[in-house]
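Request:
You are asked to prepare a plain-text protein record giving the amino acid sequence and the backbone structure tokens, at your earliest convenience.
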Amino acid sequence: SVETSRNLQSSTVYVTIMGEREEKQKTLNGLKSAGGFIQRTLRKNLDLRTIPNIRFMLDDSLDRAEQISDLLEEAKKNL
């Protein structure tokens, strides 16, 4: 998902990355490194006065959902 400030100065892009912790961090670092390129590409292709500063964040909601599901399954076994 993406959250953009009302004044279009900043956008936070939440990404879900599959894999182990190290792989996730490498991928997130790659996205952060590409931030300037992505902003320049947006500037060329969008008719906006201001292109937001893009910040990438890891969305770990799927991991948390899986943990909750595992806990519920474990609780169900103990009933």
Notes: Residues 2-77 form a domain with the GMP Synthetase; Chain A, domain 3 fold (CATH 3.30.300.20). The chain has three helices and three strands. The longest strand covers residues 10-15.
